[in-house]
Amino acid sequence: xxxxxxxxxxxxxxxxxxxxxxxxxxxxxxxxxxxxxxxxxxxxxxxxxxxxxxxxxxxxxxxxxxxxxxxxxxxxxxxxxxxxxxxxxxxxxxxxxxxxxxxxxxxxxxxxxxxxxxxxxxxxxxxxxxxxxxxxxxxxxxxxxxxxxxxxxxxxxxxxxxxxxxxxxxxxxxxxxxxxxxxxxxxxxxxxxxxxxxxxxxxxxxxxxxxxxxxxxxxxxxxxxxxxxxxxxxxxxxxxxxxxxxxxxxxxxxxxxxxxxxxxxxxxxxxxxxxxxxxxxxxxxxxxxxxxxxxxxxxxxxxxxxxxxxxxxxxxxxxxxxxxxxxxxxxxxxxxxxxxxxxxxxxxxxxxxxxxxxxxxxxxxxxxxxxxxxxxxxxxxxxxxxxxxxxxxxxxxxxxxxxxxxxxxxxxxxxxxxxxxxxxxxxxxxxxxxxxxxxxxxxxxxxxxxxxxxxxxxxxxxxxxxxxxxxxxxxxxxxxxxxxxxxxxxx
Length: 491
Prior knowledge:
Elements: H1 14-75, H2 81-100, E1 104-113, E2 116-120, H3 123-130, H4 146-162, E3 166-170, E4 174-183, E5 186-195, H5 200-289, H6 296-316, H7 336-351, E6 360-365, H8 377-393, E7 400-410, E8 413-420, H9 457-468, E9 471-476, E10 482-489
Parallel strand pairs: 6-7
Antiparallel strand pairs: 1-2, 1-5, 3-4, 4-5, 7-8, 8-10, 9-10
């Protein structure tokens, strides 16, 4: 089970803040649009109810006023010219005041007279119908809107049966209203009104208020994100500063660690080479004691080689990271066969010339046509000598035969092999790590139990080979024994 991650495990960058801001703005815009549409729908329904109710109330009041005027005029003396004129004026005022309103388009008193429908819009006509001699047959409805008569005929039966106000909506804004008109307690017809309630200003006011709220809310979100941005910028700056300081500190520690590793490798290299230098100095002293006229040339050759090797050891003590040109350089003209023969004849056969020498047999099978390599011969010495020494030291309990081979598999490669018929490498020493390095060539890996400063011979040989641009490998032979392989590049 993995532990749950804390908020500190996540690092937000400016791109993350911008993405969050864009997402919030998009969702806020979508929410505002949806809310605006739903709000408009709700207000539209509310306004439809309000407009219908308003239209019906106006029509009802107008009808009631007409009924009262007619009843009042009947109480007064109908034959009095002054009373008649006053009643007609009152009726005209009532009808004209309604049509003068911005929302009322048509007003008619629809009366059922025998087999016809009278659409009355003048006070004189209404007065004549109910208080005068009646409307003569010459009266015409041509001035009346066709909608009024048609609408009345459509809802006549419902109106007479239910005696309720009837209204319907034409389009989005126009209402047709019929209000039952009573004369002496009986339905005599209906008052018709065509009403167009105007609530656009009210809706605009509501929409404007809502838009202002949306803009304010969006502004608050924007201000919040701006505050988040500035806070993040400050914290990101502080974080970057701390990270830079940590990086500088880590770089410094890594540099110190690398320097320490180089110094450690340098110390180990010097520790091993100074033993070889002591042994070579012993050979020089021995050769000088045996010097005479017969061996003068051979001794001069050997002592010169020995002295150059000691000089190389001393030079190595000057720096733990010698420049590459003192290792590989076109001025070096090294014959690898000569180096291998010199090491065998003048190092190992001198050491094992008596006693243990009977148990060590060294054979050479060298290709005489090998080209020269541009590597310092004493660097080659530092590679080959510890590999031969390793084979001898790990097989002291048996008769050992060492075989040294050199060949040229192609024009750019020289192949060197140092093989023995001993016990071979332990399997765990040939296991490769994730970098492809076998355990045999790792630092401090050795089969010599209880010995200090062991396990560096093969490690140093591989490190020096790498600086030469060569490859060193090891494997067990199928017939028994172990074998080191050096792949040297020519040029």
